[in-house]
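Q: Structure tokens for this one, please.
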Amino acid sequence: MSSTPSRQERFEAHMQIIANLEVIVKKTSAALQVFPRGNMGLTPDDVKASPEYKTAKADFDAVFKALRNANRHLTSHFRLEYRAYHRAKQEERKA
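A: Here is the predicted structure, written as tokens:
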């Protein structure tokens, strides 16, 4: 007989998933920052047309979308737990 994880265990697992996704977002974002930018900070069209840029951008977009969905799930399904977690983090910073 398998026991189901408690709500707190599911919350902690979800927070770990979000932390992992944030690390991947940083890595994929860093991969995009390698590409040259114009004077105004925009990526030139010829760079955007390259297959390397398209791959890096698609990777970033996919991971960012997953992170956005995980955060949406967090705030809708674990509202009370996240509020308590956030308040505890704020108290840590004050101390």
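A few notes: Residues 7-33 form the longest helix (27 residues). The chain has a mean pLDDT of 94.
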